[in-house]
Amino acid sequence: MASINTVLGAIFVASFYFCGSLAFFPPGPGHHHEGAHHPPIGSAPIPGLSTDYYRLTCPQADETVAPILKKAIAKEPRVAASLLRLLFHDCFVQGCDASVLLDDAEEVVSEKNAIPNKDSIRGFEVIDEIKAALEEACPQTVSCADTVALAARGSTVLSGGPYWELPLGRRDSRTANMKLANKNLPPPNATLHRLIKFFRRQGLDKVDLVALSGSHTIGSARCVSFKQRLYNQHRDNRPDSTLETSFYHTLASACPRAGGDGEIRPLDLVSPSRFDNSYYKLVLEGKGLLNSDEVLWTGRDPEIAGLVKSYAEDEALFFEHYVSSVTKMGNINPLTGHDGEIRKNCRRVNQEI
Ligand code: HEM
């Protein structure tokens, strides 16, 4: 006979999938646990942004985004990861203003060619498709910066991750800053000390660093992003000693010493397209793919290591902190009011008439 636990478990799993299918509608009370442990700093209102910003001007924004995302992710699950990463790479460079989406032009040096982005960030075609649909539904209303934020939130939910109330109303920059992209986006071989500094520069703390690194529960990285760990971690021609042995061998066979730099490996080898807490479990086992993942555990910061352990043990806690931290990241330095513009095409600034 099924025990009460099995029955409750089944209800939980069923409700989880049910919420997933209603991806863009807020779950009922009690589903997410904002702020019980970590104060919801991220939810502190930002002047000019609000969760019902398009209530009168584009109430169908969410419904417009959802089917396009669903289709794109069904076709290629990795696209969810790529879209989530776009929010990070947008917000860390002059704020969440869609600067990352601008192509090279007379007045624009595209951030797409910055070292952390080149041959790496992706998902632009999906953003274009969503934006075109939004323009059709509500012309010149929903910004590209909000489009990126909506796509990131939707991608997280569709991958099984948490839902969050998304403040909207960001406007789009008329500039990009490739130099700042090189300066502000952390490299994968950064020490823990440097990672903390990169995040602090954006007003983000250690909890944010650990929780947001959990985004590496989905998606992939190229060999070039972690090769140093396999062959020359400390300029000593030796592998990173914190890599678990069998994991090291799998990686080394996929990424030879010479060549193969563009080959990709999943960031979370257990469930590469499911947004869950297995990333932290892997990091505890020496199976974090990037140096920046592994140092959260091995970098000798007791608060940070403690958080990794807590998230590995408690997925609900990870989700709760994630919601707070991703909200905070999405609120970095937005353009509001009369600043910036609502781009018609996310790849270029509007032409002055
Ligand atoms: C803590 C500092 C971080 C570092 C050093 C870092 C670095 C990287 C690198 C090197 C890759 C692989 C790129 C490639 O090989 O082409 C990657 C992938 C990814 N990153 Fe991060 N990242 C960090 C934080 C974040 C944050 C805060 C987010 C989101 C909120 C994020 C989301 C992702 C996702 C989803 C992918 C997979 C993308 C795909 O498959 O297209 N990362 N990251």
From TrEMBL:
Q: How is the cofactor bound?
A: Binds 1 heme b (iron(II)-protoporphyrin IX) group per subunit. Binds 2 calcium ions per subunit.
Which residues are substrate-binding? 186
Q: Which residues bind Ca(2+) 2?
A: 217, 268, 276
The site feature described as Transition state stabilizer is recorded at 85
What GO terms describe the biological role, i.e. biological process, of this protein? anther wall tapetum development; hydrogen peroxide catabolic process; response to oxidative stress
Query: Where found, per UniProt?
Result: Secreted
The entry marks the following residues as binding heme b, namely 216
Task: Locate the residues binding Ca(2+) 1.
Answer: 90, 93, 95, 97, 99, 111
List cellular component terms (GO): extracellular region; plant-type cell wall
Task: Enumerate the active-site residues.
Answer: 89 (proton acceptor)
Q: What is its EC number?
A: 1.11.1.7
Q: Which InterPro entries match?
A: Haem_peroxidase (IPR002016), Haem_peroxidase_sf (IPR010255), Peroxidase_pln (IPR000823), Peroxidases_AS (IPR019794), Peroxidases_heam-ligand_BS (IPR019793), Secretory_peroxidase (IPR033905)
Q: Which residues form the Plant heme peroxidase family profile domain?
A: 48-350
Q: Which CDD domains match?
A: secretory_peroxidase
> Which cofactors is this protein said to need?
heme b; Ca(2+)
Keyword Calcium in the entry? The reply is: yes
- What GO molecular-function term can you cite, just one? lactoperoxidase activity
Catalysed transformations (reactions): 2 a phenolic donor + H2O2 = 2 a phenolic radical donor + 2 H2O
> Which cysteine pairs make disulfide bonds?
58-138, 91-96, 144-346, 223-255
Keyword terms, alphabetized: Calcium, Disulfide bond, Glycoprotein, Heme, Hydrogen peroxide, Iron, Metal-binding, Oxidoreductase, Peroxidase, Pyrrolidone carboxylic acid, Secreted
- Family indicated by similarity: Belongs to the peroxidase family. Ascorbate peroxidase subfamily.
User: Per its record, how is this protein called by name?
Assistant: Peroxidase
